[in-house]
């Protein structure tokens, strides 16, 4: 147990010093927010003189992947680079190589060619930045800019960039849950599958609709639900939900048609 503790401490210290060293050699803009469809520049500069064996690698990890996992994969990847394996071998579940500049050659991996451009090409004069030409929601995640310069290990390192692609809410789906009988409760739900920042939802009735009785509804703008309590004819009509965030809004509607409880129940009663 004590041994495990020492190993853990050593790992943490190693990670810690690794980060400090990286920050000195490679400097990134750590947080980038862009609108979907616009170009996203991932800024990364380094302070070393590119020479024999200089390697620049950009990798992507999906949101939710711990950064230390990406670091571990990085070490494996660097090792492989020194064996000059083709770039497609540098991929793993959690961490995907996108761009590799090695031995004076540029490799684009997967579908990134044509979607991404180097800001400086060849990237050998201190600027390793890339530009995503038209950012998509699925581009959100962590990007690792890594520079390896065997002739100057103190000039090697990596930087982590957190890219968030903001997007207006997608057209929400409106649904009615429950049976709209007189005296019953029902819930109207509304949800956009996409949208960042997370949309908020608001429900409205038609402009000429009669007001609902007081305390007869509960609206949750975060989840998009509207609970209607103790239904009566006054509740009938069309309800519109608007999903909105800083980038835009979208709406859907649901029509509530009151059903007579008596009719439906009478068929049940006939069974007894
Ligand atoms: C990346 O940025 C987003 C938006 O600010 C944030 O929610 C997320 O936690 C960040 N991820 C990491 C790993 O820092
Ligand atoms: C439900 O609404 C009716 C009028 O439509 C009212 O008479 C009744 O007291 C209400 N019941 C409850 C439990 O609020």
From TrEMBL:
The entry's keywords: Signal
Signal peptide start and end residues: 1-22
Domain annotation Ig-like: ranges: 24-162, 169-259
Tree of life domain: Eukaryota
Name of the protein described by the UniProt record: V-set and immunoglobulin domain containing 2
InterPro entries to which the protein is assigned, alphabetical: Ig-like_dom (IPR007110), Ig-like_dom_sf (IPR036179), Ig-like_fold (IPR013783), Ig_sub (IPR003599), Ig_sub2 (IPR003598), VSIG2 (IPR042475)
A Pfam family it matches: Ig_3
């Amino acid at each position: 147990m004590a041994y495990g503790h020492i190993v853990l401490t050593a790992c943490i210290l190693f990670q810690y010093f690794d980060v400090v060293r990286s920050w000195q050699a490679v400097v990134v803009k750590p947080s980038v927010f862009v609108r979907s469809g616009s170009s996203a520049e991932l800024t990364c500069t380094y302070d070393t003189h590119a020479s024999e064996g200089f390697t620049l690698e950009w990798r992507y990890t999906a949101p939710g992947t711990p950064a230390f996992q990406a670091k571990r994969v990085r070490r494996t990847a660097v090792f492989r680079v020194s064996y000059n394996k083709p770039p497609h071998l540098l991929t793993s579940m959690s961490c995907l190589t996108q761009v590799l500049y090695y031995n004076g050659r540029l490799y684009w991996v997967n579908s990134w060619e044509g979607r991404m451009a180097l800001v400086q090409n060849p990237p050998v004069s201190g600027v390793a930045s890339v530009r995503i030409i038209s950012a998509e929601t699925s581009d959100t995640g962590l990007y690792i800019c890594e520079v390896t310069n065997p002739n100057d290990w103190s000039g090697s390192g990596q930087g982590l960039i957190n890219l968030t692609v903001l997007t207006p809410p997608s057209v929400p789906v409106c649904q009615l849950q429950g049976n709209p009988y007189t005296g019953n409760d029902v819930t109207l739900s509304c949800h956009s599958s996409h949208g960042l920042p997370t949309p908020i939802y608001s429900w409205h009735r038609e402009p000429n609709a009669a007001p609902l009785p007081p305390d007869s509804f509960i609206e949750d703008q975060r989840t998009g639900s509207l609970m209607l309590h103790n239904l009566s004819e006054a509740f009938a009509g069309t309800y519109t939900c608007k999903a909105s965030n800083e980038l835009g809004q979208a709406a859907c509607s649901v029509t509530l048609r009151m059903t007579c409880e008596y009719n439906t129940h009478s068929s049940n009663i006939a069974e007894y």
